[in-house]
Fold this protein.
Amino acid sequence: MSILLSEIEKLPVSDKMKMVPASTYGLSATMGLSLSDSALNLVHLQLHPITENLCFSMGLVKIADVYWAWRNNFLASKSFSLRQQQEIQNALREVLRTKTVDGRVDWEKIWAQRGVSLPTLAMASSALERLTPGMREFGLGVLHLGKACWVLESQHITTVGGLIDAARIGIGTIPNFGTFAQRQVVTALKALSSSIATTGSVNWELYATNRGYPMIPKNGGDISDKGGMLGTLLAICNEAIPHQFDKQGWDVFQRRCLKTTRSTLRNIAMSHGVCAERIRKIEESCLDAVRNPLLNDNYCGLEFRIRGDYVAAFRQSRLQLKTLSAPALRESRWLAELAGLWKSSEAEVRQYDRLIIECLNFRRYNLDGFQLEPIIMDRAISRSEAEKLCKQVYAVHEILTGNLLGLEASALLQALRQRGFDGISPKHLATLIDLCSTVETVKKHGVKYRLKLEFVAGRTNQAIRVLHEANIHLHHHQLIAEINGRLPECKRIRGKFSFVNQLCKDDRLQPIGKSGKWTLTEWKMETRPLIEVIDEVLMSEGKPLAFDEIARKVLTRRPGTEGSILLTLRMNPDRFQQASGGIYGLKSWGEIGSATTKPAAIGEFIEDYFKGQGGGAVNFRHLRKAFEEVSGLCPRAAASRLAAHPALEMHPATGSGTERRQLATYHANWQNRPAKNVGKPRRQPLQSERIVAEAKRLVQDEPSGECLLIDVVNILKEQMGICSTSIYAAIAGCREIEKTSRPGEKIKRLCLQRPEVPDAPVLDAKRGGATARWLDGSAGQREPKVTALVEAAFDPNFTTVRRDRELAKCQT
């Protein structure tokens, strides 16, 4: 038996324990502890590292092993010093002292009494063991670890559960895992152990209190009490950033994310005396300090805690936006959707758009074209995929820019394939169209895609688009109204003159005479002036035509109105003449009137009519109707011709209403009577005379002696209240006013015709002297004063200014 004991003495303690009866081992070795606590590594006794290493060398690995060796005096028989034996004895007694009824050890008290031995870092507790699986899957950032988080992740310890398991065994020595990082882990595990409820969940507010971190926002409550989600986000930023960062970081965050007028990185860098890259990094750190806790429960290095109900609300918003913006959304639509979710105005959301986009873990991508609206994508999408999508959107914009009238889906897909974008399906094309802010869908005669009118470059292209849509010629006033109706205020047409000038320079557009209407060249419409079309109609017929027939034939060839045709016929007496009954012909045909409209024929008609009526007085109305049938004149023209004829004597009218009648008698000796003046004496100038006088005054008031015709018409319309048609007609009939136009312009200008002055000299400058040449071709002196002025004007000693002054005197 002694030999057996001596052999046992040589065995490791763990083997000795196996040779002891189970009943004896269960009573003595476990010290009455639970199996989980007795099976813990001896590092949980928080012994000195030298003592721990000595125990490990003797095969004492678990707490039960150390206790068995201590109770059986194996420690004294080995190389343990009295101080080490006392240390082990005190550690075991403290474990037994904190034991509960169920045999579990209150390790929190052990940590408080003995501390945690570093760098072994072994920690375990019943609270940590009952942590729920969901809580164990949280990342290490939820524990507010700093540098320790990255060091542990390098050792593949990435979750709270992994850290607890590693601490149960003992973390031990890790590269770059210094005392500061180890103390962070110890503090975090202590606070976590005391914050776990009996159900295994964690009270994170209690955890933050144990760590000494404030809860943000400081005053909790319902989100609606803080101004909704946007107000809550601003409250979080206003409390978290100043608490976490210094004054420089808070100033950078304010000027970049919170103020209405956003400062540039360069301006902020100059005010702080650092480079712009440094400011960018500070801004990114501030955004991470808000974004990571809200979305990922990552408080790595942060010294505050955001309340859980606010975090849940922001995550719900992100989830909804992520569902809506798959794969991307235009910025305006994204902000509108967010405003609807947060029940805020779109203007308020747009004011803090960058802060919201970054905090919800989205990213803004600016497209190449300055006209294109940025698009918002989730940060989970890789940059390469996002940039590829942006290039496809910009390619759609470029293709449609070169196709004014738009393209169908098949043609657009073909154009994209030619640019190297293969594999784009019709469904993906619809997504690209939705992301391209400059494109609209037209569902007329099939589905076509085209640029919105406000993004069509050039007024002429906009006019061509409008004409194609109307499919009919339009007046420039209609074009301006239609274009301005689709453009924002800043892009609208201000003046029609510059607009008309641009239309004149484009060969794709043609003006329809002087009507102000425009048509497309490809329509091949008649665009000559009305006077030429009327002339052509009369020449083709070869005979005078009634006005209705002329109007019908002209309007079938060229757009216009009957009023314009009638005005053209009457205001051009050098080319057209009017016969009886509204019949018109060419002036070159000679007199085309009917013989019955001549004075002698009218006198014969009156004589025959009175003979047929038996002489005496007749009703003038019956006489007029008979003359209408013979002459073909209109009632008004027939009445005026008869009343003005000396063969007829008009009597005052009698009766009223339907009984009103006017009698007329015949003068047999009418050839010897003077012609009658049936018109009333004019007491004031005619309207045309007043128009001409006012137009001459406006032209004379201009220093240049010229004035735009359209300006004169507009001024007279406003001052005199006369329609533009009457003004144009009066000016056209005045020989004293001349219409001119400059080379390359189609806008008419007015100037006064200068009277010929035969005695005005024309001065010819020659080197070394001057000669005067008179308009009548003669030479020599007319008056000494004029000759002196001419010679002085070309004196080589005079300056240019004085020479011009002397020339002006000569012309005067």
Observations:
- The CA atoms of residues 580 and 717 lie 34 Å apart.
